[in-house]
Amino acid sequence: MITLSDITKVYKNGPLEVEALSRINLQINEGEFVAIMGTSGSGKSTLMNIIGCLDIPTSGTYVLDGQEVQTLNEDELSKVRNRKIGFVFQSFNLLGRQTVLQNVTLPMMYAGMPRDHRQERALHLLEKVGLEGRVKHRPTELSGGQKQRVAIARALTMGAPILLADEPTGNLDSKSSHDIMALFKEIHQEGTTIVLVTHEPDIAEHADRILLFGDGKLLKDTRKGSVPS
Ligand SMILES: Nc1ncnc2c1ncn2[C@@H]1O[C@H](COP(=O)(O)OP(=O)(O)O)[C@@H](O)[C@H]1O
Ligand SMILES: [Mg+2]
């Protein structure tokens, strides 16, 4: 489903160059639940942005669902993002002036889904994440864990087969973190491929496969119940 071949990403700021990723080779199959670990600055977010088609590599090829991402134009890319990828971020990225319900319906509005349908789907997803009692609230009236549930519901609206989460529990206490992980597990069991970045080993333990990054390189690729390769 996700195939990265020899992916390198160099950031250029004037004369300064940072190689954030160097020659990454990686395949993630449909239905996997993968955790990405590594110290700060090791390239985890850069990798997530490339997988999510938010950024393009400097060299190498990325094939997503049989499509070579480099060959797509802006329009095609945004379609791919919309249909195939759901994003969850550490800082939630909710719209503060909008209600919980509006935050969740927004991507469907952009996609031109009929009003009745998006309302119904948003309510269904908010119920799924346990927030049916908070649909009229604003994000500021919610706890961190609840905000992240809204973000997860929003990420699921388009029925994307891949859910990317960059340190989704980074701003949460340990109880909320584990509740959020239980939710990711449920979503995974329903068939969504999940790639999640975390610093915390006990969060990564929820995944079936752990990728360890260091200094822009993939250092270790461990599947649950197998020896590291
Ligand atoms: N937009 C950018 N411009 C320049 N350098 C960047 C940019 N984004 C990230 N970097 C650099 O790339 C490296 C990897 O960053 P990042 O992928 O954010 O790491 P992580 O998510 O593992 O903390 C770091 O050295 C960081 O400073
Ligand atoms: Mg990061």
UniProtKB/TrEMBL annotation:
Transmembrane segments: none annotated. Pfam families: ABC_tran. GO terms for molecular function: ATP binding; ATP hydrolysis activity; transmembrane transporter activity. One of its GO terms (cellular component) is plasma membrane. SUPFAM superfamilies: P-loop containing nucleoside triphosphate hydrolases. Keywords: ATP-binding, Nucleotide-binding, Transport. InterPro entries: AAA+_ATPase, ABC_transporter-like_ATP-bd, ABC_transporter-like_CS, ABC_transpr_LolD-like, MacB-like_ATP-bd, P-loop_NTPase. Residues 2-229 form the ABC transporter domain. It comes from Paenibacillus apis. The keyword Iron-sulfur does not apply. This is Macrolide ABC transporter ATP-binding protein. Signal peptide: none annotated.
